[in-house]
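User: Let's play a game. I give you a shape written as tokens, and you guess the letters that built it. Ready? Here's round one.
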């Protein structure tokens, strides 16, 4: 009995030491995982990406619109050619729909931008890259729209029209991916950290903007422009 008791007593310290080592290993692993999670956060990279893409490249796109309208006004005294047959008598309701949608998409862009700025630093870098990369794809492809429209108005050619259609398909696909990423790729706990007002208005603005670009611009407008 004394021998077995001694065996049990002597066995206890090694068991305790093993338990301590396991606990320390688990704690170290938890710290490393937390450190990795912190490293994966986009931080300033996320904020800069949103500002550069949403605002920087966006300003370039707006500049092409201004140039196109100014060019048409100088040469023809009007820019209504950009509407195609949407501006014809009898299509007043469709034209009004476009005006309302354009205004809604323009207004919706700003809460969408605000929401992106709020979540970007907290998001994983890969999510920021998905959101900003898809929106950059939309902007870059859209940069060619106005120059091609002006070229087609000046000299209608089938090749230019087909290129416009393809460009709009690419732009519409990119903007839909962008909207999907903002709705479904953002972790719920990060979205919940943003004020409900900004979150709802940001997502609503994203939805309206994407709907206008993917449906009205990429689907309804092209056949009426030719």
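Assistant: Ready! My guess for every position:
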């Amino acid at each position: 009995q004394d021998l077995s008791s001694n065996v049990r007593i002597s066995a206890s310290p090694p068991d305790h030491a093993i338990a301590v080592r396991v606990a320390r290993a688990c704690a170290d692993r938890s710290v490393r995982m937390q450190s990795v999670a912190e490293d994966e956060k986009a931080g300033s990279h996320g904020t800069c990406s949103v500002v550069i893409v949403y605002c920087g490249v966006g300003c370039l796109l707006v500049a092409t619109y201004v140039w196109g309208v100014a060019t048409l006004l100088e040469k023809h005294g009007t820019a209504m050619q950009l509407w195609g047959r949407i501006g014809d008598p009898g299509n007043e309701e469709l034209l009004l729909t476009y005006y309302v949608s354009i205004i809604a998409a323009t207004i919706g862009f700003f809460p969408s931008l605000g929401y992106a700025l709020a979540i970007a630093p907290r998001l994983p870098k890969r999510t920021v890259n998905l959101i900003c990369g898809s929106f950059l794809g939309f902007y870059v492809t859209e940069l060619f729209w106005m120059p091609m429209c002006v070229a087609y108005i000046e000299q209608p050619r089938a090749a230019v029209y087909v290129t416009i259609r393809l460009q709009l398909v690419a732009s519409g696909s990119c903007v839909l991916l962008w909207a999907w990423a903002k709705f479904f790729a953002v972790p719920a706990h990060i979205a919940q950290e943003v004020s409900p007002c900004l979150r709802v208005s940001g997502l609503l603005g994203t939805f309206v903007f994407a709907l206008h670009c993917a449906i009205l611009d990429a689907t309804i407008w092209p056949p009426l422009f030719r």
